[in-house]
Amino acid sequence: MKLNRKQGMISVPMNAMSDVAFLLLIFIMLVALINYRKEIKIEYPEAEKTIQVNDIKNLEIWIDKAGSLYIDGERASLAAIEDAVGNIYRNDPDTRIHIIADKNTPFEKISAVLQTLQILEYRVVSFVVKDAK
What is the rounded distance in angstroms from the CA atom of residue 103 to the CA atom of residue 106? Predict the structure, then answer.
């Protein structure tokens, strides 16, 4: 960067500052997209006692109050959930499945997912709830 000195005054050229700001903005936007997680709008059920699980590897099965199923934010059928769980079990059996259901979801919809997991003999399952405290 060239600094011009005229009679004791230093001037810094500001032409490149807009380019740097633009590149910084693009970088921040890209980093924000990396951590993007699709969520379904639900009302979490409450629990009196909760356990914090900090697993990085997990599969999220969302069930909204209408009973629609989602895998990691994408709409899915019960057969698609069965395929996804089977693939995960073959590739990495330690992956935890998080069931995230609206508190107004009919139990029959949650039971269908649980029966599928039971048939597949998948035992690393958690229910995501809101702490009542």
Answer: 9
Distance (Å) of CA 83 to CA 23, 42, 89, 120: 42, 24, 10, 10
The predicted-structure confidence for 88-112, as pLDDT tens digits, reads as follows 888 887 788 888 888 888 888 888 9
Q: Number of H helices and number of E strands within the chain? A: 3, 9
Q: Assign a CATH topology to domain 46-131.
A: Nucleotidyltransferase; domain 5 (3.30.420)
Residue 53 in this model has a pLDDT that exceeds 70:
no
Domain ranges (residues) in the chain: 4-34, 46-131
Tell me the two tokens of residue 13: 């050229």
User: 98-112 in b/e burial notation, b at 16+ Cβ within 10 A?
Assistant: bbbbbeebeeebbee
CA distance 103 to 39: 16
Query: pTM of this prediction?
Result: 0.62
- Paired residues of 126 in beta bridges: 98
Give dist(CA 13, CA 4) in Å, integer. Answer: 9
Q: At what angle do helices 107-119 and 78-91 cross, to 10 degrees?
A: 40
